């Protein structure tokens, strides 16, 4: 049984829906899943692509695999933290469309964080999450 997760953009806060996320996510009791930061590392050891858009594709694939391993789907995600090296409007654009597609318009609460570096110099993006199943 999937717990009820309510995602809100209350009228007392700026409407985040057009930007692809929710201001608030409320989860009913259930098992909590904590997804470690996913980066553009491939299971086959392929080189990390240099471009952010290409890394986003790999990161979202890894993120979907982590959710699946936990018995969860994007619908179960209540919170995302996205770390992007040298975050700028172009980077936001490269990220938000594929992220919105993954969540089908029901995005969780989200925080985007611009950073100077991640765990390895080739990584440009890292996504961590909390889900409830």
3D architecture notes:
One of its GO terms (molecular function) is deaminase activity. It comes from Frigidibacter albus. Pfam families: Ribonuc_L-PSP. Belongs to the RutC family. This is RidA family protein. It is built from two helices and six strands; from the N terminus they run βββαβαββ. 31% of the residues are buried. α1 (52-69) packs parallel to α2. It has a single domain, classed as RutC-like (60s Ribosomal Protein L30, Chain: A). With 133 residues, the protein is an alpha+beta fold. It has helices spanning 52-69, 89-103, and strands spanning 5-8, 24-27, 32-38, 77-85, 109-115, 125-132. The strands form two sheets. Strands 3-6-4-5 form a four-stranded mixed beta sheet. Strands 1-2 form a two-stranded antiparallel sheet. The N and C termini lie close together (8 Å). Helix content is 25%, strand content 29%. It is globular, with a radius of gyration of 15 Å.
């Amino acid at each position: 049984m999937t717990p009820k997760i309510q995602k809100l953009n209350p009228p007392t806060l700026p409407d985040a829906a057009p930007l692809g996320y929710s201001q608030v996510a409320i989860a009913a009791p259930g098992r909590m899943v904590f997804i470690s930061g996913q980066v553009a590392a491939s299971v086959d050891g392929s080189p990390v692509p240099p471009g952010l858009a290409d890394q986003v594709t790999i990161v979202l694939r890894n993120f979907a695999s982590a959710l699946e391993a936990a018995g969860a789907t994007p619908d179960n995600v209540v919170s995302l933290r996205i770390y992007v090296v040298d975050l700028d409007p172009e980077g936001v654009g490269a990220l938000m469309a594929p992220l919105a597609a993954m969540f089908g318009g029901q995005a969780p609460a989200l925080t985007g964080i611009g950073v100077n570096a991640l765990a390895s110099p080739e990584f440009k993006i890292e996504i961590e999450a909390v889900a409830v199943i």
